[in-house]
Design brief:
Layout: E1 11-14, H1 18-26, H2 32-40, E2 43-47, H3 62-65, E3 82-86, E4 90-94, H4 101-109, E5 117-120, H5 126-137, E6 141-146, H6 149-158, E7 162-165, H7 171-178, E8 183-188, H8 195-200, E9 202-210, H9 224-228, E10 233-235, H10 246-261, E11 269-274, H11 278-286, E12 293-297
Parallel strand pairs: 5-6, 5-8, 6-7, 8-9, 9-10, 11-12
Antiparallel strand pairs: 1-2, 2-4, 3-4
Helix pairs in contact: 4-5
């Protein structure tokens, strides 16, 4: 086994998110194996030297291997993880490759381009900042919502064309004011608090991409609302349907790492906390105070 400081040593991290505390909140009697699943599904690592095996798949550390309920979408034969070879000598191990979520949303779920205007909720968060940057790369016009002046500045630094302080104005009305007939797409990770107004600020035949529920789950929808809004589209994508094969995952990951390498894409790390402070990390995320990625260091 590679020793401390050896370039072949993988540095492992845990990247908790809103879905983790929502999963726990929906089941107040979380069993130990469920808690382990909640932790290890966000496990990922990077290494600067090739893995010892030629296989594109390899198991993650014992922490994850001991959790039989882990679901990785069938990416690997062992049902545990994936390992990808990235250009420039970087090798990526991930239990649940959340880093490609933003890429999937902007490039596949609703492929943006120069003729599009999109609204991104929670633009100062980790995924929000990535969405803004990737949408800007396509030439699209980017609107985003944030709650504070500090978060507004972070969204502007990420490249947002217009930043809407939803604590001061109605974001749907502001979106209508800033566009001729509404936005082409809304990327909504908030859920129940924003869903209705997200629908109302879409142009005819616009897309609502619901990819999270940090404020709670959305109630069942009468399809007639989509017709009344102008033949609207609603989708609830999941990442693994967009990385169904190792080749598809590798293609997305390589694009992202290339962008990171040439500095055209930047990931802001908000906090790094020891694993012993996992509870504090989740309280911080639940309080919607995040300004980038939160990492737990095992």
């Amino acid at each position: 086994m590679a020793g401390e400081g050896d370039p072949a040593t993988t540095r492992w991290f845990l990247g908790p998110g809103h879905a983790d505390h929502l999963d726990a909140a929906n089941d107040h009697t979380v069993r130990p194996e469920q808690l382990l699943r909640l932790l290890t599904r966000r496990l990922f690592g990077y290494r600067a030297a090739p893995p010892p095996e030629e296989s594109p798949f390899a198991p993650v550390p014992d922490l994850a291997r001991s959790a039989p309920t882990i679901d990785n979408g069938g990416l690997s034969p062992d049902g545990l993880t994936c390992r990808l070879t990235i250009r420039r000598g970087v090798y990526w191990d991930s239990q649940r490759p959340r880093e490609v979520t933003a890429h999937d949303l902007v490039r596949s779920t609703f492929p943006q381009g120069p003729d599009h205007t999109g609204l991104i909720h929670a633009g100062a968060g980790g995924v929000g900042q990535l969405l803004i940057q990737l949408a800007q790369h396509t030439g699209a016009r980017v609107l985003t919502t944030v709650s504070t002046a500090e978060k507004a500045e972070l969204a502007k630094q990420a490249g947002a064309d217009e930043v809407i302080r939803y604590t001061e104005v109605d974001f749907a009305e502001e979106g209508d004011r800033l566009t001729d007939d509404g936005v082409d797409v809304v990327y909504d990770s908030v859920g129940v608090d924003t869903f209705d107004r997200s629908l109302s600020c879409l142009r005819p035949r616009g897309y609502l991409v619901l990819f999270g529920q940090s404020s709670g789950a959305v109630e069942p929808l009468d399809p007639q609302r989509l017709a009344a809004g102008g033949s609207l589209f609603l989708t609830r994508p999941t990442l693994f349907d967009h990385i169904a094969t190792p080749d598809e995952l590798r293609q997305r990951a390589v694009e992202l790492f290339d962008a990171l390498a040439d500095d055209s894409l930047r990931v802001r790390i908000d906090r790094r906390l020891p694993l012993a402070e996992a509870a504090e990390a989740h309280r911080y995320i639940e309080g919607r105070g995040t300004r980038g990625k939160v990492l737990l260091l095992p």
